[in-house]
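pasting for the record
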Amino acid sequence: MPDRWPLRYRIAHRLHCQVNRLHRYAGTRATWWLARSLVPELVAEVERLRQQRTIETVEELVRFEFPDIWTHVTQRWPTSTPFTQACKVAEEAGEVVGAVIKQREGRRTEEAVLDELADTVIAAISAIQARSDSAEQVVLDRWVQVRSR
């Protein structure tokens, strides 16, 4: 977790990691002890943020929601379909490869590569939203499967 992240994001990241640990141990006796060890630390962090007026509620701290990219795409390009959006992800990924190759040749910067990666992520979120009402849940469920590999 980068130290340059704002405090709010560092706390949210820590909370997310701890919730994942709880999820991993769900249904075992360790859940109780793990939860018991995490709660005082989280309560203290949230209270400190409230006193600093950084957050108002815990929900504000842990909210994880993608912007509604698919609605924007369909309004701007009415003929868009879930199929064409999935193809857009592949096209954006190809641009990432091109940017990385050009960077190795000294013709692109790291910022250009990161921009292309971000474009790919945005296209992928939109493609998931085109096929599901809960893109956040789809990504989180997949992350739980992928991280154990």
